[in-house]
Design a protein that fits this description.
Distance between the termini: 51 Å
Structural class: alpha/beta
Helix content: 25-40%
Number of strands: 17
Radius of gyration: 21 Å
Strand content: 15-25%
Largest sheet: 9 strands, mixed
Shape: globular
Oligomer: single chain
Length: 448
C-alpha cells in the first residue's frame, strides 16, 4: 500500500512547516516528506493536496461513548446534579445501546479529523451483555485506533459515594474483569489498533483500595491509568471533607502520579499540583466544551504547558458536550486560555500540538503517532483550507481559529476512513442512525 500526497501545506507539529510539499506513505507508515514536487513511485495512489493542510490525525484522550444516547438532558445542571440525574438512565443501558452509541460517536470523531480515541466506560449493569466488547467492535469496524479504558465504581451512596448503589460493582469483580479485558484485548505492538487502560471512575465514586489495587494491576500488566480528577470545586470540597486533603494530594498518596497516568479535566489545580504533574510526567486530558457546559471552570492549560506537563484534548461524553468536534476543541482551548490570560496565552500551533502530539504523549504513543515524521504511523488528516478559507493566508490559523474545515481525507495507518466528509469504512448515514436508535432504546429501557 503506497500513497503520495502532493502539492499540500504540511504542518508536521514536530518540525518546520512545509508550505508546498509532499508526503509518502508505505506499508502504513510515513516513508518520506519534504518540500517541492513529489517523487514518482510506481503503483502509488496520488492524492492532490492543492488547497489542503496536512496535519497528524487528532488524538482524543477522554470520552464516554455510551453518552451519545443521552445528549441534551439536564441542560442547566452542575456536574453532581447532572450525574445524579443520569445515573438511573445509564443503569439501563445494554450492549446494543453501547454499540450504536459508540458507532455514532466514533464516526463523528473521524469526521472531525480524529484517528485515535480513548473511551472511559465505567458503568456495567448486570446481565446487559458485553458492553466492553460492543464498543471495541464499533471501533474495529470503523478503523480508528482505540484505547478503551475499563472504568469502575465500587463506592455507592451507602458508602459515602455519589452514585446509587445499583450501578456500582464489587472490587473483586472489577479487578477480575479488568484483568480479563487486558488479557483479551490489549495489544502493545508499535502499530497497535487496540490498547486497554485501567480507569476507576473518580475519587467520589471509588474506594481507596480499588484505586491502589487498580494501579498495581495496571503496572503489573504494563498498561496505563486514567481517571477523572479536580473537575469541580465541589469535588475538592468533597475530598477535603472525606479524605482530609485535595484531590491531587489524595492521588499522590495512592500512587497515582506518574508518566503512565493521565487525568481527565484537572480544572482546579494548585500551583503545587502543576509542579508535581510536570515533575512526574502525569498527563491531563483538557475538555474545554464539557467544562464550560457544566460550569466547572477553565483548566490551567497555559500554566501546565509552561511547566512541561503533558496536555491533550478530549471531547468528553456527548451528554455534557453535545456534538462536540475534536477539531473544534482546539479552538475552544485557545479561546478560553486567551479569555483568562490574554492573546498570547495559547497560539494556534500550540493548540494543534495539544490536539495531536500532546494527546499521543498522554497515551504513551508519542513515538508512534501525533506528528508527521518518517517512521511514524500514517495517521493523517487532510483539511480543505481553500475556497472561503483561502482568505486566511495561514492554513493552521484557518484550522484552529475558524470552524472545522471540510475533511478531504483521513488516513489511519494509511487506510482511508473518511473521504470528502463521508465515512468510507462503514455506511455513513446508517452510522448516524445507529446513534439515534441507541438513544431511543435507552430511553425506552429507562421507562420500564
Amino acid at each position: 500500500m503506497k500513497i503520495v500526497i502532493e502539492n499540500a501545506y504540511l504542518a508536521p507539529v514536530s518540525g518546520p512547516e512545509i508550505p508546498s510539499g509532499y508526503l509518502v506513505v508505505e506499508n502504513g507508515r510515513i516513508a518520506a516528506l519534504g518540500p517541492g514536487p513529489a517523487p514518482r513511485i510506481e503503483g502509488a495512489e496520488r492524492i492532490n493536496g492543492t488547497g489542503c493542510l496536512v496535519t497528524p490525525g487528532l488524538v482524543n484522550t477522554h470520552h464516554h461513548l455510551y453518552q451519545w444516547a443521552s445528549q441534551g438532558l439536564f441542560q442547566d445542571s452542575t456536574l453532581f446534579e447532572w450525574l445524579t440525574g443520569l445515573y438511573q438512565l445509564w443503569a439501563r443501558m445494554d450492549a446494543e445501546v453501547v454499540y450504536g452509541a459508540a458507532s455514532a460517536g466514533l464516526g463523528w470523531l473521524a469526521l472531525n479529523g480524529c484517528t485515535t480515541s480513548t473511551d472511559h466506560h465505567y458503568i456495567f449493569p448486570k446481565d446487559r451483555g458485553d458492553l466492553f466488547a460492543a464498543e471495541i467492535r464499533a471501533a474495529g469496524e470503523l478503523g480508528l485506533r482505540f484505547h478503551p479504558c475499563r472504568g469502575s465504581m465500587d463506592r455507592g451512596q451507602s458508602d459515602g459515594g455519589l452514585p446509587p448503589d445499583e450501578v456500582v460493582e464489587t472490587r473483586d469483580d472489577i479487578l477480575a474483569h479488568t484483568a480479563e479485558m487486558i488479557d483479551k484485548y490489549h495489544d502493545p505492538s508499535f502499530d497497535s489498533m487496540l490498547r486497554v487502560a485501567v480507569a476507576p471512575c473518580s475519587p467520589f465514586s471509588v474506594s481507596a483500595e480499588l484505586m491502589t489495587e487498580s494501579a498495581a494491576l495496571a503496572r503489573a500488566r504494563g498498561v496505563r491509568l486514567h481517571t477523572h480528577l479536580a473537575e469541580t470545586l465541589d469535588e475538592e470540597a468533597h475530598c477535603k471533607e472525606q479524605m482530609g486533603c485535595t484531590p491531587v494530594e489524595y492521588m499522590e498518596q495512592l500512587g497515582w502520579l506518574g508518566d503512565d497516568v493521565w487525568f481527565a479535566h484537572a480544572v482546579h489545580l494548585h500551583d503545587t499540583d502543576i509542579r508535581r504533574f510536570a515533575e512526574t510526567g502525569t498527563g491531563v486530558a483538557h475538555c474545554p466544551t464539557s467544562n464550560a457546559r457544566l460550569g466547572a471552570g477553565i483548566a490551567r492549560v497555559t500554566d501546565l504547558l509552561a511547566a512541561g506537563a503533558p496536555v491533550g484534548l478530549g471531547v468528553d461524553g456527548a451528554a455534557s458536550a453535545e456534538l462536540t468536534s475534536l477539531a473544534g476543541e482546539m479552538r475552544q482551548a485557545l479561546l478560553f486560555q486567551r479569555a483568562v490570560h490574554g492573546p498570547k496565552a495559547l497560539t494556534a500551533r500550540q493548540a494543534l500540538a495539544v490536539g495531536t502530539l500532546g494527546g499521543a504523549r498522554n497515551l504513551g504513543r508519542q513515538h508512534e503517532i501525533g506528528s508527521l515524521e518518517v517512521g511514524k504511523l500514517a495517521d493523517i488528516a487532510l483539511w480543505r483550507v481553500d475556497g472561503f478559507r483561502a482568505a486566511i493566508e495561514d492554513p493552521v490559523c484557518a484550522l484552529v481559529f475558524g470552524p472545522t474545515p471540510p475533511l478531504a481525507r483521513l488516513l489511519v495507518g494509511g487506510h482511508t476512513v473518511v473521504e470528502n466528509d463521508e465515512l468510507r469504512t462503514v455506511a455513513h448515514d446508517a452510522t448516524g442512525r445507529a446513534g439515534a436508535a441507541a438513544r431511543k432504546r435507552l430511553l425506552q429501557e429507562g421507562t420500564r
